[in-house]
UniProtKB/TrEMBL annotation:
It comes from the Bacteria. Residues 14-72 form the HTH cro/C1-type domain. SUPFAM superfamilies: lambda repressor-like DNA-binding domains (SSF47413). Pfam families: HTH_3. It comes from Devosia rhizoryzae. CDD domains: HTH_XRE. Gene3D superfamilies: lambda repressor-like DNA-binding domains. This is Helix-turn-helix transcriptional regulator.
């Protein structure tokens, strides 16, 4: 499930990571950032307090993890209406 950028926050990204069962180490590695950078981002009070480059890397990595878990997500062919 791709999250709209306006619906994101460091706290919601942390919640999403936890719901997906992804460790801080795994997400940091997938995002190409350090654990310290991820931890600082997840503890930012708001998106504007976080590093925008880190935020995009985290969002992209979370999307990739989600697709790996369920490759049919975001595939209109997989869910015909």
């Amino acid at each position: 499930m791709t999250i709209n950028i306006t619906d994101r926050s460091p706290a919601s990204d942390r919640d999403r990571r936890e719901q997906l069962g992804i460790s801080v180490d795994d997400l940091a590695a997938r995002a190409g950032i350090s654990v310290d950078e991820l931890t600082a981002y997840e503890h930012a009070k708001s998106e504007s307090d976080g590093n925008p480059t880190i935020a995009m890397k985290v969002a992209d990595a979370l999307d990739r993890f989600e697709r790996d878990i369920d490759p049919t997500k975001d595939d209109p062919q997989a869910h015909p209406t």
